[in-house]
Amino acid sequence: MITEEKIAVLVKEIQRNNQDCFKEFFFIMQPIVFSFILKYTSNRESAEDLTQETFIRFWASRDKLDYNSSPKGYLFKIARNLSLNYLVREKKPLKIPNEDDYLILLSQNREDELRRVFFHDDCQKAINMLPERCRATFLLSRYGGFNYYEIAEIMDVSLQTVKNQMNKAISVLKKLLSYHID
Predict the structure, then answer these.
(1) Cα angle 9-14-17, degrees, rounded to a multiple of 5
(2) I need a labelling partner for 124 at 20 to 30 A (CA). Which of 21, 38, 178, 179 fits?
(3) Residue 40: other Cβ atoms inside 10 A
(4) Integer Cα distance of 168 and 130 in angstroms
């Protein structure tokens, strides 16, 4: 397991335009980033392209990096944003029934649709209220599709820490969203 200290040293050198350190950082992080993106895209070729683009953008913004914060977090933020943009671009257009059928469908399901929208909004707010480590762990697990072992590797923490953070996140979310549960 690569240490955060090692990553910090590499990032400090990357800020100084050290291409050898960037290559080392790339070889350390590329498999993890690729796996992360592949879970979003489910397309190996696109995941390879987006992984490459992630590192290109990371290198391009090297002067803005803070090696004392979380450069891996920044890297995964780039990867996530590129993946989400890819999903939006590749989404097939929604087929809408003819106008009369669509209006009938909307009027029949309006209350359910409103409940769903409010619940989704409340979920996003509740997730954003989680402490940073809990939120990151929860998002990697539930939205990123990573298992606890992979999360421990990405966040460079123990497996038990990941389990504790997930338990805390779920407990807090249950409390915050309890009024949605009948």
Answers:
(1) 140
(2) 38
(3) 20
(4) 9
Q: Residue 42 CB: number of other CB atoms within 10 A? A: 9
Q: Is 177 exposed, middle or buried (0-12, 13-18, 19+ CB in 10 A)?
A: middle
114-170 per-position pLDDT tens digit: 566 677 777 878 888 888 888 888 888 887 777 898 888 777 789 999 999 999 999
Q: State how far the alpha carbon of 146 is from the alpha carbons of 61, 78, 126, in Å.
A: 27, 17, 21
CB-based contact 126:173 (threshold 8 Å): yes
> Rg of the chain over CA atoms, in angstroms?
20
Predicted pLDDT of residue 48: 94
Q: Which tokens sit at 36?
A: 């992360």
List the domains of the chain with CATH numbers.
4-90 (1.10.1740.10), 109-176 (1.10.10.10)
